[in-house]
Batch of 3 targets.
Target 1
Amino acid sequence: MDTQEKITDTAQDMRRTMLLSAVREEMENFGMNPSRLAREAGLSGVRVTQWLQGLYRGSDLPVMEKALESWLSAVREGREMAARGYIPTIPAWLSTPTANKILLALKYAHKLADIAVIYGGAGLGKTITAQRYGEDVPDVWIATMTPSISGVSACLERVGQAVGLASIPAGGARAEQAIVNRIRGTGGLLIVDEAQHLPIACLDALRSLYDASGVGLAIMGNESVYTQLTGGSRRAHFAQLFSRIGRRERLTHPSAGDMDVLLDAWGVKEAKARALCREVGSKAGALRGLTKVLRMARLMMGEEETELSAGAIESAWAELGGMA
């Protein structure tokens, strides 16, 4: 190795050490565990854990560290904006009535080793509440499905990653057995999010995992998840899974209580502003869409303004394309 290469390697090591120190500091500030960091940065939980321990040396290390640098930058920028009063410090998760229903369904599946189906519209807090539950309780694994999951092997690979398998055997039967060996006897909970993307065979594979492992199973998604489990000619395919469902939690729209908790957290006091926010929250996207409008309204306010007004909220809604 020549002198220039040594200098480059030394600089990379120093940068990596500084990044590691900064990430650990922010994790401590937020009381954050590696799983939450991985989710927020869009990375594998297993790889992030190894990186935090200084053990990860995979070929994608530069890509991982770039994602962590982006996460760190976003966290610092958000804190600076909050310090200047642009964005109030609001918890990522709020104890709304709907969130508490979701928590109860997850706890039911977990503690009784049963199957729960939690389904309904977008923006009601299913995903973030599941993440909150996983942060507070050990042996909870969240496997998030996507449209690219078209077969059993891909589905099991996603579950294997979620439960922390370092390597996932090729072939559905081997992958299934590896997952069962990992989670059986833990008393844990497997949460499958965005399950509406899964075809019939994948949902049946989840039923097999549940039967073989004895851990709780929570299936979350939009309305079509429940329709798939009960609808028409598909009923025979799902008879074994449907008969095992112990709890069904349907979420249709945000309740008045959900709205009040969110608006109180943002400090929205003006009656006209709260009424407008309730209208925003009743649209597609629900509480998630309302939160985006509130954040945009805060960004658009002048430094001398201290309270979100109906005018600011209306302007933000229009800016985000919510008004004609």
Target 2
Amino acid sequence: MIKAVAIGYLSKVSTGNVNASHTEGNVVVAKKVTLPDGSSLPYISGQALRRMLRDRLADLGFSLSEPFAEVSGQEVTPPARPWEFIDEDLFGYLDASGMKRRTSPVRVSAAIGLYPYQGDRDLGTRSFERFNQSMESGGNMFETEVYANVFRGSILIELDRVGVFTSRELGEKSSEDQVRKLDHPERTKRMQALFEALGLLWGGGRTARMLADLSPKFLAVSFLSVKHPVFLEALTARYENGGIVLHLEPLKAALERFAPYRQMTVFGMDPGFLANEGDVRTALSAYAEVVSVQEAIRRAKDEVKALWSGPSA
């Protein structure tokens, strides 16, 4: 029985600061994590990525729960109607009163840059002359930490919980934790929409002047009989002679380790993204077919449809 979907992906940011940290003086600082050797890697938080996925689901025509939440001061009470709102189903919710709580079936890692931050900054200015002031009035200047990097991310989807809600999650009093399920067509629709949203991923801060495409350029998808983030630490690469070289051994080790649990696996790769594209295609073909990213997403959507082909849960 298939219980989960593990996804690993690589995205490229040519120049940007997708998910900033705090501001130091007039400098907008990028989120970074420090390595044992003292160098630092930029990262995009899981919260930011979940926000982007939500926004893409809205672009695809789904209604989100947020406009229907009750706000009182700093307290936000969600509608807690996951059968109605796809974001409450996929990403969970919390009623501050503690009466209703759903843990997200979609677990998202931070997207970690593969290369250390080099200290680059973008300089921005605002001239008061543009506001009918004299040139002598000056203006203000600000800086933004920027990077060019390849980010690796991982998603684990508890497939058996998508469209499935317990009485505790719904705040219903019951002597037993009863389960309410959506029908198969609706569950299929929601999972397929999530895959599509991943293929359309973009967002973050400063998109007006630092637009970044975060959609996967390399994608690994595996349907599993267990729940495990197979690709979380398996995607690494180095920068060599102006190109991105994917390290194959960690990925092959992960595939072999979870071979007994992998029911269906597919790889997607955009042409020209990896410098060792031929080696990657040859090595990974021993485990699963290597197709384009778009085709890999389509096959993942078809796999979901095949799993939930019946009319009811």
Target 3
Amino acid sequence: MNLNPRAQQLLKTLIDIYITDGQPVASKILAQTSGLDVSSATIRNVMSQLDQQGLVHAPHTSAGRIPTEKGYRFFIDSLMEMQPITADFLGTLSTELNANQSTEHLVNNASSLLSSFTRMAGIVTIPKRSQLILRQIEFLPLPGNRLLAILVINEKQVENRVIETDREYTQSELQTVSNIINSQYAGKDIFSIRTALVEILHQASNNLDQQMKLAADIADKALQENKSGSDYVMQGKTNLLNFSELEETGRLQQMFQVFNNTRDMLNILDRCINADGVKVYVGQESGVEGLGSCSLITAPYQADGEVLGVLGVVGPTRMNYKNVIPVVEITAKLLGQALKS
């Protein structure tokens, strides 16, 4: 977008002020804080032009203006100056994310640190277990709506997993399921198989082949790692109650419904895991209904060149991007280093 330096400076100033105060910014305030030797009338004219370009808008007739999603995107891509990480923060990260801890503790600490330093919600996916190649899977029916899944992993490793189902299955049905999974996914790593199955179930419709839907549902349960909890850790959700703009028209309720829907969250996090560094979704850019008033900043974390998962921060669109982005970036780096060690 072609904005002259004066318009860029005014837009940058407006967004910085709005991120801090959360209130529409009037032309008079911009005249006092922008560092430009221009009148309020000139600023009003520039604001009108920015409004026409969809970068700002006035929520009320007599009020000042606030950024739009398009305005935030231009700010992030073209105007923002990152804030350096402080020595105190780096020291805390290094202490809390040290290699002398279990993976579970490291993931929980990373989520907690992201939440506490940004005062928003911190999310970290559980590291995928590397080099787990599915060779074969078979199922046996058990009493009480349960199944025994027998997995042959890598070359000789055999795992038995008992899974709960919503009904009993015949041996014939289970044989069909194992045939489908073995024919389509044998030789692939379990993490990528689960990602594919989640996508299949997310897009499930009446037109989806019922045998494939059944196979995906049962295999998804069988291939989950033997751990309690979800595929990710999320801390600090209550921090979002402090942002008044999220209380409007049931936005908080919609947002928490997304947080509680594992498939919705995995869908967007899986899209971020292969990103080249930090990825920023502003509002509707995430494509997830219910997160339209939020922004999501993520970064993949890796060890020995292998991506293990993704972490990030969820907050309102008026989050302090220039502070949050470096926090997410360095946390991903140090978590990966700790897991490598």
